[in-house]
Amino acid sequence: MEQIVKETNFQSLQKEMKAAQRKLAIRRMLRNKLAMTGFLILLIAMIITVTAPFITAHDPLQAEPLERLQAPSAEHLFGTDNLGRDLFSRVIYGIQESMIVGFSVTFVTALLGIIIGLYSAYYSGLDHVLMRINDGLMAFPSILLAIAIMAVLGPRTENVVIALSIVYTPLVARVVRSSTLTIKEQTYIEALRSIGARSMRIIWGHIAPNMISPLIVQATFIFAMAIINEAMLSFLGAGIPAPNPSLGNILYDGKNVITTAWWMTVFPGIAIILITLGLNMFGDGLRDILDPHSKKGK
Questions:
Q1: pLDDT tens by residue, 84-124
Q2: Domain 21-290 - what CATH class?
């Protein structure tokens, strides 16, 4: 009975501390111009993702050979591509595809990275096995490993998510493992062990919630890298297959007419730059906010 009371009191104190930290983090974020600018760009991209069918009246797959390579106009805001398809529609749906792939990759890598990182750090026996596999995967350049996986699986959106998740899970696992190694040596973890708390309860109830901050920051960078690498894979013909719109395959279509139809490379290129810039600004801002030693987030 006394053990239950002690653990209950400890958990109540921990919840109060977390609530206070969340309020402080929100205040710091609202004052951080870098984070808020990145968040605004990311919010616009998310709105485009959700409302893509309502933003444009043109079918991104509808080819009109008689209207091919038309310059931007009132009818076609971004002009038309080499098959006469409305480029504005294709860029909007390309942003939607990129955001879906980026979010899916980030979710899968975060989930797998948390599991691998937590268990490898807490159980030394697993650490040698899991981290050596991680080291093997990280030895390959990310884009080459992704291309090799796509060559085996085939060019499909689902396979792009699988390939990029395999590529980036080791990075997340390393971050989680590093944080877990630090947290598990804290006094309150030792106190939990001393009162007989089970390992699973310590790992998922006390260690996992306390390494969320570095994981969130890492996730924003994974999101940005996933979008860039998805575009690279599609540009190389190993990603999202044509005629489905992707920012990468739009750039591929535009490379042969870059001198006569600049809009085919400029607009999708700007979309990629803005989304990745917003994610990186948001990630940098979060790092300043969540780092207690940072002066920028204060």
A1: 899 999 999 999 999 999 999 999 999 999 999 888 888 87
A2: mainly alpha
